[in-house]
Specification:
Mean pLDDT: 77
Shape: globular
Number of domains: 1
Oligomer: single chain
Distance between the termini: 51 Å
Strand content: under 5%
Largest sheet: none
Low-confidence stretches: 181-193
Radius of gyration: 20 Å
């Protein structure tokens, strides 16, 4: 039993090393990211003060599209500088696998989820990384909301576990099935159909 635990600890350490190396490569790529297309315009929103920021966001919302929250986040990150994009990129890309593992009730799998996800991000084709992740506006339109969705799912799972069972994380697979049954009936209980 002791050798099995030691082997698992060694595997977790290896997974964390893989995740750390992938995170370093991702951080380097994010630090080399240059503004592209609409990033130039978004960078100007905060240049002339807060009143201009509000006016330009209102105009952008009424003229172009209604994605206010993600564009405001992109504008702030562009205004703060590239270091803030590196931090945001690492936080979002790290939170997706961590939240997924925790929502699945697999806390022990967090290092493996991190390693697989971070290495998988680096294995994406160059056009996907370049136009989907290493373009600040695109990052905030796609990766950032995905990270928020995974965070929301994890928090919902923990809330259901605490409300229905009084525990911090979801119980055994039988309890998880019960949780799925509760959530499958939930829309009907509050009047949606």
């Amino acid at each position: 039993m002791d050798t099995e635990k030691r082997r698992l600890d060694t595997n977790k350490l290896f997974a964390l090393i893989v995740a750390a190396v992938a995170a370093v490569f991702l951080a380097v790529m994010a630090s080399l990211t240059l503004p592209a297309t609409d990033d130039y315009q978004y960078r100007l929103f905060l240049r002339d003060g807060f009143d201009n920021f509000i006016r330009m966001n209102k105009e952008h919302y009424e003229t172009y599209n209604g994605r206010v929250f993600v564009h405001v986040c992109a504008q702030v990150v562009l205004w703060l500088g590239n270091w803030s994009f590196v931090v945001t990129c690492l936080l979002c890309c790290g939170s997706i696998p961590v939240c997924a593992a925790l929502a699945a009730g697999r806390r022990e799998n967090v290092p493996f989820a991190l390693a697989v996800f971070m290495a998988g991000v680096l294995a994406l084709p160059y056009p996907v990384i370049n136009q989907g992740m290493m373009w600040v506006s695109s990052f905030f339109n796609y990766v950032f909301p995905t990270a928020l969705i995974f965070l929301t799912l994890m928090l919902l799972d923990r809330t259901v576990a605490m409300v229905y069972w009084g525990v911090r994380s979801s119980p055994s697979p039988a309890g998880r099935r019960m949780s799925n049954q509760v959530w499958s009936r939930w829309p009907l209980r509050v009047g949606f159909s």
